[in-house]
Design a protein that fits this description.
Elements lengths: L2 H26 L3 H19 L3 H20 L5 H11 L11 H11 L19 H19 L3 H23 E3 H4 L3 H12 L3 E7 L3 E3 L3 H19 L3 H6 L6 E10 L2 E8 L6 H10 L6 H4 L13 H6 L2 H10 L3 E7 L3 E9 L5 E7 L4 E5 L3 E6 L2 H4 E2 L2 E4 L2 E8 L5 E5 L3 E5 L1 E15 L2 E6 L6 E4 L8 E2 L7 E5 L3 H12 L4 E5 L2 H10 L4 E4 L8 H11 L5 E4 L4 H10 L3 E3 L5 H12 L1
């Protein structure tokens, strides 16, 4: 059973419990039931977050907020709201996938009284496939099903891979566009701008088969137009000047694009006069800025007052270029040489639905390495291969950056690092959750029941070795079975020993009888809440860090601090952020 199945199992129980409580509330008008309903939807919200069911999370949050407002105002919920809520959640027992955005929108309109509960929910065009596409998918699924029924697993695996390829191609057509297709009119712009300034300019495109997201295409066009115009207006000299300098009278601008290790690179280079660094330095001093000249040109409005000089063309708008790259996990760099030209390199992470990885095993851990980063794999032989802290292979030495306690295989990366591991599990396709933690690039999901760390081979520090450390022991207190299962499994796969407790009294009793390094507690727990749990734990041993793990408001954050908690994190955040916080307290 995977974690989403656990969620839907819990959902059925919570729906049944909610309906019973709502009926009791309607009969008795006892306000104590409001808190029970608030707690149930608070739990569902947190559970949905942990298993990435974002629309269930958003719906549960809205309902939770309604009951929270009822608690604070000490008013009974509107009876029509309660009836509509029963009508909506009664259908949840049959769900095994996330709600659609349209369903969430319609359900909220029903709760707000804007729409009758008996109305049919309309699915928007964006949420349905064409009939022909659905038919094709069904056909392929039937082939797989029948192969499995015939026990022809080899054919089933082949058909699944074909279906995966078909789906990826469909997504590719929907999401991406070839960069060369959106640059078709750029040569016309170059010709027009060159004539405007009385210059001769040739545009050269060196673009590999690079695809960008359609939603980014307008921004990328704007960036390239901006950089090309600047090159023409302020970089490329006029024909007479170029002749005097011994240059060809026709200036050149190159646009290059390529993909490297998950990043798209776009270069715009000219063979003009280069940036006037001295002039930019004077402007930096004049404005009393604590930056280098090549950092200054990316500041918003850096040269807005000097419209006629070098700074004007190179400064205005470059902040937009940098912001675009930064927001997509990249950056922009500039190289310039007086009299030779200038090159801007914009790079950002490419979107990928599939990441191919090699999964390897250490003494106590499993982690992954992107196959695109691997140069070669060899059997480890200490006598023949290892020279001090280096691996000898085909006449070349590679620094060892990671070595397990029982080495059997050597993985040489393309950036010439050696990683020595116990075992190679295999090559798999997975999906990347980007979350940089120390030397981890992120986490790969859909290979095992919980995500596994993806090693960032670019940031590995020299001489990292497997440590024979005693496992840190964590107490996890939460009434949600989903939270207990997801978080404990996730942390155990990262080398932690996790003990769970389903309520506060159970957690406090376990804390009294065992030694723990860290305690993680939810807030909304039956009988005794997380703040009181924190106080009691701190009374027993104030040195043990307590992390409040909940969907906290600012008010609850203040309460967490008052109770003595050392930190807090929202369940809306990915589990990897919780891991980062635990690592901080584990040092």
């Amino acid at each position: 059973m995977d974690f989403s199945e656990i969620f839907f199992s819990e959902l059925k129980d919570k729906v049944s419990e909610s309906i019973n409580i709502i009926e009791e509330l309607k009969k008795s008008k006892d306000k104590k039931y409001i808190k029970d309903l608030y707690r149930i939807f608070h739990t569902l919200k947190g559970s949905a977050s942990l298993v990435n069911l974002e629309n269930f999370r958003d719906f549960s949050h809205k309902v939770e907020q309604y009951f929270k407002e009822s608690l604070e105002s000490e008013k009974l919920p509107d009876e029509s709201f309660l009836d509509n809520l029963i009508a909506i959640i009664s259908n949840f027992s049959n769900k095994n996938t996330d709600l659609t955005e349209t369903e969430v929108k319609d359900f909220l309109e029903i709760l707000e009284g804007k729409k009758d509960a008996s109305e049919n929910i309309v699915i928007s065009e964006k949420e349905i496939f064409k009939i022909s596409e659905i038919s094709e998918y069904i056909s392929k699924v039937l082939e797989i099903e029948n192969s499995i029924l015939r026990n022809d697993l080899k054919s089933a695996l082949s058909e699944i891979r074909n279906l995966k390829k078909y789906l990826l191609n469909t997504l590719d057509e929907i999401v991406f566009v070839k960069l060369e297709n959106i640059l078709k009119d750029l040569k016309k712009l170059v010709s027009r701008e060159a004539n405007r300034y009385g210059k001769k300019v040739e545009l050269l495109l060196e673009i590999e088969n690079v695809k960008i997201e359609k939603e980014d295409s307008k921004d990328i066009i704007d960036i390239l137009v901006h950089l090309v115009r600047n090159s023409i207006a302020h970089g490329i000299e006029n024909p007479d000047e170029r002749k005097k300098l011994g240059k060809n009278e026709v200036g050149k601008i190159w646009i290059r694009s390529y993909v490297d290790q998950g990043n798209i690179f776009i270069e715009v280079e000219d063979d003009g006069k280069g940036l006037d660094i001295e002039k930019i330095e004077n402007k930096v001093k004049e404005k009393n800025l604590n930056v280098t000249p090549l950092e200054a040109i990316f500041l918003p409005g850096f040269s807005s007052k000097d419209k006629a000089d070098e700074l004007s063309g190179r400064g205005i708008g470059l902040d937009m270029v940098k912001n675009f790259a930064n927001l997509r996990g990249g950056d922009v760099k500039v190289e310039t040489q007086k009299g030779k030209g200038t090159k801007f390199t914009v790079f950002f992470k490419t979107k990928s639905f599939i990441t191919k990885v090699l999964v390897v095993e250490d003494s106590e851990r499993i982690f992954a390495i992107e196959t695109s980063h691997i140069l070669k794999i060899e059997n480890y032989n200490e006598k023949e291969m290892q020279i001090e802290n280096k691996i000898a292979s085909e006449g070349k030495l590679y620094e060892i950056y990671y070595k397990s306690k029982k080495p059997k295989f050597v993985i040489i990366t393309k950036n010439e690092k050696a990683i020595v591991v116990n075992n190679i599990i295999g090559t798999f396709d997975g999906q990347l959750i980007v979350q940089e933690i120390r030397e981890i690039k992120g986490f790969i999901k859909n290979i095992f029941s919980s995500p596994i760390p993806l090693l960032d081979t670019n940031t590995l520090k020299k001489n990292v070795t497997s440590k024979n450390e005693e496992k840190k022991k964590i107490l996890l207190i939460d009434d949600s079975i989903v939270t207990r299962n997801v978080v404990s499994k996730f942390l155990e796969n990262r080398g932690y020993n996790v003990v769970t407790a389903k309520n506060g009294y159970d957690g406090i009793e376990k804390f009294k009888n065992q030694e723990f390094d860290i305690v993680i507690s939810d807030v909304e727990i039956p009988r005794i809440n997380g703040f009181e749990i924190t106080r009691k734990i701190k009374e027993i041993n104030h040195n043990v860090p307590v992390i409040i793990f909940s969907t906290l408001s600012q008010k609850n954050f203040d309460k967490a601090i008052e109770s003595g908690a050392d930190s807090f994190i929202s369940k809306d955040e990915p589990p990897e952020n919780l891991l980062r916080l635990i690592e901080k307290f584990s040092k």
